[in-house]
């Protein structure tokens, strides 16, 4: 069932208008990304049917809403993980988990109760009441409760934003695990670049109630003409393979199509693993010749591909290709002028920092 | 003595019990509507529900007497239906008590419903619960204290009513002569001993009811919404 999710929604509020037309893959994790107030949560609520609006929605070939049909929330085969956990305070964790599970026909239960409890590590918590759980535990219960309805679409509205840094780190591996394990599409609302970089396969960027850009995560983030204002967070995501570890210097060599990077590592980075790496545009500088006598160790040959005036005044965004892998570099426009950069020109990239996002 | 004591007491309990039961059934949808709607009729209806709080019971009793009497709209309807006239009957007393105690049911329920965060209902909807299902499995248990307060207040208030009973029920032994009226009778007849017995037991009863209510509600539970 590799269909698509097609939607076309319009609704009007005082001072805000949502007008979203979108078609995204019917599998994998799609991030709805944008600044607060851009309408991403409203769009998610429209999809769930929680926000009345005009338009149409079909999920993997099934029409949930159009001019004739408009399924009420409880008849849409979806699950919703809210920003604030909405665990029922009068029910134990087990009864919370069973709330949706018991309401779907037995034949529709694609995920077993015990499996979901095991995936999210909830066995110990079943008899507890929600008020006695930590923030991270509560959000894990909320995710499990949603999954137990065996939905055909999982909607998540900033599920990590109400959590502290430690709880976030606790939940993220569970989310990655679900993304890789489940066949159902996930729509994930977030304003955090690092969450999106780590989790998403596909990204939809929203601004002022409209979809301004969408596409596969890596290709979309590598576009130099970023209309969506990532500012300091602009950068590329690449998947690399760890081919060597140097335990003396706590470094690992990551190979990708077009070169290799050395990154600072810890014990979990095994040879052969395939981490997602993020290289921010502000951490990339350009030299016309190889400059080995300096502190930056990651020097890669690349070709200038595109130069675009950036949003911030006096800066430019340069896209470089190392093999088939794109990189972005944010330079001052004067540097671009002084170096005389033009598309097609061979240069050296100096990469100051590489982050492992998962 | 025993007879004249227990008959009004039993009648009072029967009236209060029946009124409370019926009001919880009628008052719940009214309170739910008032708690959730943005309709322009919300304020006027809320005011009508609260009227018995400010009106003297004699005013309410007087109009009920007119409306349910042989010339009144309700009176003519009940006669056509073969029920007969309601004033000076136990049934008439139940109808009057329901109107008189309506705010004591609706207002605690409305407050309780308003405090049920809409997010819980939305979550229940995404977990496949239909509107009625959501009401009984999420709202009712979360508004448990509201139902308790509404029930006890309605019951206690009905036991204590006097003016409406006198206007609409009169003083018929075994039919409309409830405790408050019986006490009044005894005092009028200077039978202070009997009046004492009834009055003191009502004080004790009311005290026990209120203490049990507070004990049942316990400390307010801290509900982690966020």
TrEMBL record, chain A:
Keyword Cell inner membrane listed? yes
Q: Does the keyword ATP-binding apply?
A: yes
- Where the record annotates domain Mop, the positions are 293-358
Q: Which residues form the signal peptide?
A: none
Q: Keywords of this protein's UniProt record, alphabetized?
A: ATP-binding, Cell inner membrane, Cell membrane, Membrane, Molybdenum, Nucleotide-binding, Translocase, Transport
SUPFAM superfamilies attached to this UniProt entry: MOP-like, P-loop containing nucleoside triphosphate hydrolases
Q: The organism sits in which domain of life? A: Bacteria
- Domain ABC transporter span(s) in chain numbering: 2-233
InterPro entries named among the record's database cross-references: AAA+_ATPase, ABC_transporter-like_ATP-bd, ABC_transporter-like_CS, Mo/tungstate-bd_C_term_dom, ModC_ABC_ATP-bd, Molybdenum_import_ModC, Mop_domain, P-loop_NTPase
Q: Name one GO molecular function term.
A: ATP binding
Q: What is this protein called?
A: Molybdenum ABC transporter ATP-binding protein
Name of the coding gene: modC
From TrEMBL, chain B:
A Pfam family the protein falls into: BPD_transp_1
Compartments, record wording: Cell inner membrane; Cell membrane
Q: Which UniProt keywords apply?
A: Cell inner membrane, Cell membrane, Membrane, Molybdenum, Transmembrane, Transmembrane helix, Transport
User: What is the membrane topology here?
Assistant: Multi-pass membrane protein
Q: Which residues form the ABC transmembrane type-1 domain?
A: 9-215
Q: Its principal location?
A: membrane
Q: SUPFAM superfamilies attached here? A: MetI-like
**Gene3D superfamilies per record:** MetI-like (1.10.3720.10)
Top-rank lineage group of the source organism = Bacteria
- Extract the InterPro entries matched here: MetI-like, MetI-like_sf, ModB_ABC
- Family from the record: Belongs to the binding-protein-dependent transport system permease family. CysTW subfamily.
Question: By what name is this protein known?
Answer: Molybdenum transport system permease
Q: Which organism is it from?
A: Marinobacter koreensis
